[in-house]
Amino acid sequence: MQKLRSVLAAAALAVTATLTAAAPAQAAGVIPGEYVALGDSFASGVGAPPYLPEADPEDPCRNSEHSYPRTWAGRNPGFTLVDMTCSGATIAEVRAEQMSALSGRTTLVTVTVGGNDDGFTDTARTCVLGSDAQCKAATDLGAYVARTTLADALAALYTDIRLRAPRAQILVLGYPRLVDEGTGSCGAIGLSALKRKQITHNADHLAAGIADAAGRAGVRFVEMRLPFIGHEACTPISTEWIHGVSSNVDLAHQTFHPKKHGHAVVYTYMLGAEILKL
């Protein structure tokens, strides 16, 4: 695991430098047409307000104009975006509430989902408010689930997306590491060194599980840990691209989610760069 951290950290230096430029705009290997975005809060743009008006304010999806699907589609007018993303979405909810948008007309699909099935909210709450031992137990369980049942469920989901959208290029965007393992402030509540290490442990296994599922289903996985290295929560506020812990109850939903730059620049750049490889 330490070797992986070193490799990612070294590569991140080169990637981070490119993020100051505009994100790639051309969809080289994708047929212009219908773009369907599926997924959870990391796809809908949570953490980058303001959010679009909600059809049901009591059940908010928190879709932001700064989300990577909306930012990328805005730079590629040859694509018509159908944004089905919604904060809190699970694999089952993507199946039940989002996949109906897919069809033979769809030429591009992006997906970010699985974190909620892996217990994102409960694990984050446990690590923020619980003991070191409780955090370790929660993250160890999340790491195990990510490499086993979650990977199987995601592989089946990606396969079904391919069947529903046979003409589409399908890109699976993963999740970043959420916290820096140093000693910087994490916002309203501090996190011990062990908790930070365990949160990263879970994130690495989640990435591995998603990558495994994508490989089995024959779709493309876009690694999102690398470009956020050095910019996670608990890094200096001037370089932080992921929200730390908020003491404001109205902003608690943003905890450990990308800020505007993370969504509109980093995620969007990585999506555009991957599309250029197609």
Automatic annotation (TrEMBL):
Organism for this UniProt entry: Catenuloplanes nepalensis
Region of interest (Disordered), residue spans: 49-69
Tagged with keyword Signal: yes
Domain of life: Bacteria
PANTHER family: LIPASE 2 (PTHR37981), SGNH HYDROLASE-TYPE ESTERASE DOMAIN-CONTAINING PROTEIN (PTHR37981:SF1)
InterPro entries in alphabetical order: SEST-like, SGNH_hydro, SGNH_hydro_sf
Keywords: Signal
Residue ranges constituting the SGNH hydrolase-type esterase domain according to the UniProt record: 37-264
Record-given protein name: Lysophospholipase L1-like esterase
Residue ranges with Basic and acidic residues bias: 59-68
Signal peptide stretch: 1-27
